[in-house]
Predict the structure.
Amino acid sequence: MILYGVAALAFCLLVGMFVGDVLGVLVGVDANVGGVGFAMIMLVLATDWLRKRDLFPKPTEQGVLFWSSLYIPIVIAMASTQNVAEAVTGGPMAFLAGLSALLVGAALVPVLSRIGGRSEPLPEMAEEEKREA
């Protein structure tokens, strides 16, 4: 069943990469534009849809969660394949786009932190747990 979770992630990644490549061609850029982001959005929507219909067994969920935790390294690896030097020397647009994304993300942190309300604090650790940590 864990294999089904990995298969779902692989399918979403392939479709997302295809969408990113098509979007790159439509925009006129010789690169994948947001393929991994599209894949992760599609994975979130698919897993939510399956969970609501009770079609998402726990082992399958574990397979998806394992690979989903690798999302950030995958994005960094994909970004490293882009031609950063040429983008920066091509003009200030790449710098401005990155800076604006950073500023918008930083501005949204307080807004997003208010979603969900306050939660109960974690209980104190037992002495055995403190020694193990």
About this structure: DSSP finds seven helices and no strands in the chain.
